[in-house]
Amino acid sequence: MTDTGNRLRKQLESTNFDPKQYVKQLSQQSDGDRDLQEHRQKIQTLADETAQNLKKNVYKNYRQFIETAKEISYLESEMYQLSHILTEQKSIMETITQALLSTDKDEAAKEMQAAFPKETEEVKQRTLTTLLEKVEGCKNIMETPGRYLVYNGDLFEYDVDNMSQIQKVHAFLMNDCLLIATWLPNRRGAVRYKYNALYDLDSFAIVNVKDNAPMKDMFKILMFPDSRIFQAENSKIKKEWLEILDETKKNKVVKERHKKEEEPPHSPVRQDMSNNPFDEDEEVVCEEIVDLSMEWIQELPEDLDVCIAQRDFEGAVDLLDKLNEFLKDQPLTQPVKGLKVKVEERVRQLTEVLVFELSPDRSLRGGPKATRRAVSQLIRLGQSTKACELFLKNRAAAVQTAIRQLRIEGATLLYIHKLCNIFFTSLLETAKEFEMDFAGNTGCYSAFVVWSRSAMKMFVDAFSKQVFDSKESLSTAAECVKVAKEHCKQLSEIGLDLTFTLQSLLVKDIKAALQSYKEIIIEATKHRNSEEMWRKMNLMTPEALGKLKEEMRNCGISSFDQYTGEDCWVNLSYTIVAFTKQMMAFLEEGLKLYFPELHMVLLESLREIILVAVQHVDYSLRCEQDSEKKAFICHNASFLYETCLPVMEKRFEEGVGKPAKQLQDLRNGSRLIRVNPESTMSVV
């Protein structure tokens, strides 16, 4: 660019450039129309140069734009993972904080107990008497000898069905019962409460209610078939209620057992009922009495509660199996019914805990083996269907999380290798674990097959998003599909074949990719045809000629040497050689993607591409007047029909397993008529 042009560019690029002022000065300084025309030409030249530079910069930075977009996508994935990690860290810190606070409170409570020893039983009885004087309608409660107060405090009662607050109550826990009293709205002297209910400690069970904001610090009292829910003032008071209630119930059981052991055995006295016509029936009734006084049976409900609290699921199920074995041949008497009611409530609690262990909300680390413990116990409880459903839901969430956390790499093929490795390894491990856990439940295998298909759809969604939606080249897509097929075949070692499922889910995207690449090849061929000069190729150097021969041998054309001449010349046109290489590359990639549903799509794509070259040769022969060029065109047509197309048909048949009938018909229907260089050739 000249100095004048540089000055003009700097002037126009300056920050304080004013177009109106510039035009005004230019009009004043110009001598006439010719100066304005010259200045206009300079500005136009500058504009053309700027546009050309802009195009070059866009082309130069095109790959950088793509890389930037991929980096942004990768950054988005990293931010998601970072957010997930921060959420986990926050949860861990909150747990540690609560644990430290709880430890401090427990130590403070121990110090208080050390400073103020426990009250004697007499003091507790006097305290109970004093407190009960404030409760209306419970004068006869103190008539039971040995009854004393253990713990008391205010609670809020909630409706079991809709969890709405009902009333404020005051609970009195005694060594053998629990008294619930309601607050009186209008106090009368020392009386503050009104009697509501009295429950024997053996008649109810205590259940901890999981906190679910805003419903916090709650526990449930189960009295078959009813239940009541109470809320403590805070978590510390709730914990005290649960611990003291549990300890008081255990103390009562131990006390009653010692009392029975101290009582002398009584020999049964049988009256003479020889004249009683119902004597035989009474003997039958006596024989049907079931002995439930054994220590392990008496402590069974409490032992189940302990096992559930300590997460000893195997121990809890072992106790249930032992009880079922004991009651298998026993009659269903009233005590047995009462015992079964208590046990069934524990079974329900145990089932809820096991279900929570398998829920996707729990940590998914550890792989399928981490679920084995909960699954096996649910199966032992006779809930194999629920165990199967929860196991598969847990694994689906684990696979989805693993795919979501997979780092999106810049290279698509590298990402697909990692994706296939994660997905198919997880699927294989899940199948092996499923076969181990549900070996005796063949009815669950159909559920696993259905789950496998849904998991494969999840995999294909992530696969297609990265391979096909990002408009990768056909060669890259073919390599990615090949990798997925190879991993899918690994599942055959466990008898699971999902190849057809994978193909059916990918057929739409692969068909679209073949169609798109076919259009690209047709457009490129037409563009080369428009610039065809029908001249021999001069590769200039022996190295370039050797490279072309190697490329043609890789394409399957072993007789290419007969089309080469002296001094690096090739007796073919550039258009025909480029078409051959591009066509054979398309065929190879198509065969990598091939499966039966794509047979006609691939054949029709090949046929349409070949027709473009055939029609161009036919048109050139009909329009060309020079006899030498006609002879050269005939030579190129001979290469196309007698060398290139047969190689293509043979390669297709090798890759597919059956002949390409449409390509054979296309070649046989095109007849070459060559008499001499001056004659014409027609392609029909």
UniProtKB/TrEMBL annotation:
Gene3D superfamilies: Exo84p, C-terminal helical domain, Exo84p, N-terminal helical domain, Pleckstrin-homology domain (PH domain)/Phosphotyrosine-binding domain (PTB). InterPro entries: Cullin_repeat-like_dom_sf, Exo84, Exo84_C, Exo84_C_1, Exo84_C_2, PH-like_dom_sf, PH_domain. PROSITE patterns: PH_DOMAIN (PS50003). Residues 255-265 have a biased composition (Basic and acidic residues). Residues 255-277 are annotated as: Disordered. The keyword Transport applies. Keywords: Exocytosis, Protein transport, Transport. The keyword Transport applies. Pfam families: Exo84_C, VPS51_Exo84_N. SUPFAM superfamilies: Cullin repeat-like, PH domain-like. It is found in: Cell projection, Growth cone; Cytoplasm, Perinuclear region. Residues 148-250 form the PH domain. Belongs to the EXO84 family. Component of the exocyst complex involved in the docking of exocytic vesicles with fusion sites on the plasma membrane. PANTHER family: EXOCYST COMPLEX COMPONENT 8. This is Exocyst complex component 8.
